[in-house]
Amino acid sequence: MSDEGPDRDSVIVRQVLGGEKNLFRLLVRRYESYVYGMGMAFFHNVEDARDFVQEVFLKTYRNLSGFEGRSRFSTWLYKIAYNTALNGVNRRKEYRSLAEDSEEIDPERNNPNGSSPEQQLLRKAAKEAVLASLEDLPERYRICIDMFFFFERSYQEIEAITGFPVNTIKSHVFRAKKLLRESLEGIV
Q1: Is 10 in the same domain as 55?
Q2: pTM, two decimal places
Q3: What is the pLDDT along the chain (188 residues), one digit of tens a residue?
């Protein structure tokens, strides 16, 4: 058996439940960047994403005995993360930092890629247009497109995480791409 992968995750879970609690850090290390990425996708804020990672792994640890091994550990973990994110979005919407949204480009700062201030402004405007278009999508579409493209989850994994049937997920991804294309036409 290899040191990584779904089989190894199940072994680690059994060992943690058997008393070797320090091994949980191996699961944290393996999946921390994925959970952080999900946090950034939902909260768009580094501090909120870091808090999210801690909250998800705390919930995961506390509920580890609920992992039955019928799915991959990563799918079970992403379901916890997804549900935590949905709950967190509702709690944190009012408290989202305005500083990040109103950040100005400082032409005096060190610019490692050599872009002119105009290029920086255009890049920032394009990024904001894409993010705004993603935010304008109905939540069920945005969730499916985020999971599929940004987290590279399969339709079956998205089904396990969200509870949406596979055909619904495919439809949501298709419709989201169409809406994004229409929204960004002529902008980006």
Answers
A1: yes
A2: 0.60
A3: 444 555 789 999 999 999 999 999 999 999 999 999 888 878 778 988 899 999 999 999 999 999 988 888 998 999 899 888 887 765 544 443 333 444 444 444 445 456 678 777 777 777 777 777 877 888 888 888 888 887 778 898 888 888 889 999 999 999 988 988 888 887 65
Q: Which domain holds residue 130?
A: 115-188
Contact predicate 9/118, CB 8 Å: no
> Considering just the CA atoms, what is the radius of gyration of the chain in Å?
19
Q: What are the angstrom distances between the C-alpha of 11 and each of 23, 30, 68, 69?
A: 10, 14, 12, 10
Tokens encoding 54: 């801690």
Both 127 and 182 in one domain: the answer is yes
- Token duo for residue 151: 């987290």
Do the domain assignments include residue 166?
yes
